[in-house]
Amino acid sequence: MNLHNSNDDEVIIAMIDHIEKFIEKPNPVFDNMPICPFVNKFRQENKILYKVYNFSYSEQLGLDAKVMDLINEFKTDKYHEVMIVIHPDKESFSLEDMKQFNIILNNLISPLGLIAFTGHPLDDFNIDGVYTRRDPFINFTVQNIEKVNLYAEKLKSTGYYQRWTLENLKYINHLEINQNV
């Protein structure tokens, strides 16, 4: 799963560019903090593991078995804080299929103490009009749930969640298993 070709490099570079220019930039909707206040530190410290992989999902067959191989590899990795698996085909999944993929994936990995978030070019999740998961490529991000909850707890004392609706909070609570954001 290492980088094999320049197309993989281009996909990763495009995602990093999106992270730097959008996810890491201060935004008034988040009390002038970045969409993800912790990603810059992870990126600067090279704590993000990027994988380009043509993962698949279907209602009949379920998840691609190689996805779990990648997750198990990440779980045993003592260095990286985040793994982003990027699908190089921007049209490989409908938004609804990606949402279903995320539910199934989280059901499988939550016993491992992990959580997944997805991104999609058409993702409709937004905070006060800021589409936080509308990424240039279909992808999923995996992190340790305890650490995600610690980061969320740190943000509670700020204005970060001030413009989140009850629906926004319920949506992340359903996925992120954090009942007190």
pLDDT below 50 for ≥5 consecutive residues: which ranges? 174-181
Principal-axis shape: globular
How many beta strands in the DSSP annotation? 8
Strand content: 15-25%
N- and C-termini, Cα separation: 36 Å
| The number of domains | 1
Q: Residue-averaged pLDDT, rounded?
A: 90
C-alpha-based Rg, rounded: 16 Å
Classify the secondary structure makeup into a structural class.
alpha+beta
Q: Describe the largest sheet.
A: 4 strands, mixed
Write the H/E string, N to C. Answer: HEEHEEEHEHEEHH
Please work out how many helical segments DSSP would assign.
6
| Strand numbers in spatial order across the main sheet | 3-6-8-7
Descriptive notes:
Helices cover 41% and strands 17% of the residues. By secondary structure, the chain is α+β, with helices and mostly antiparallel strands. It has one domain. Strands 3-6-8-7 form a 4-stranded mixed β-sheet, with helices on both faces. A hairpin with a 5-residue loop joins strand 1 (26-27) and strand 2 (33-34). It is globular. The model is unreliable at 174-181 (pLDDT under 50).
Quick take:
With 181 residues, the chain is an alpha+beta fold. Helices cover 41% and strands 17% of the residues. It is built from 6 helices and 8 strands, in the order H-E-E-H-E-E-E-H-E-H-E-E-H-H.
